[in-house]
Amino acid sequence: MIYLQLFLSFLQIGLFSFGGGYAAMPLIQGQVVTGHGWLTMSEFTDLITISQMTPGPIAINSATFVGIKIAGIPGAVAATIGCILPSCIIVTIIAKLYLKYQNMDALQSVLTSLRPAVVAMIASAGISILISAFWGSGAAIALSDTRWTLVVIFAVCVFLLQKCKMNPIWVMLLAGVMKAGASLVGL
Known about the structure:
It is built from 7 helices and no strands. It has 187 residues and is an all-alpha fold. Helix 1 crosses helix 4, helix 3 crosses helix 4 and helix 6 runs antiparallel to helix 7.
């Protein structure tokens, strides 16, 4: 039964995660944290971090991780297949239709109108993860409870990514080194 639950949960994620991995994060959170309670918000944040650090799409990495945590290798297979099946079917159909109707104004207008919704989904996921990182999961947002070391690391990373155009891999490694250094110093 758990394999079917994993398959159906990630089938829904795969079916409705328009806009890619970042847009899928609120859907994944809704299924694995809120809906089924398979992960805590803290574990979900770790999941996103691990999914970012490993090759492949976030949604597929998340499905595999959650599947293994909940039901071992068969769970990972069920969740991963559930996640990729809708994409395989939808992309095949859309590619055929797009090639046939790509110059149609109505199609271009639909694609344009989906962009703000995708941006909203990405922002929603980012804000949830940011709150979890700075204040912990389930905690009220209070200035006294802010994890200032993580705020500084975040600000440095944003600066390096946006202003210095540093490679994201190096930024992630540097963030890990900064946190390890802060822990050694006792911050």
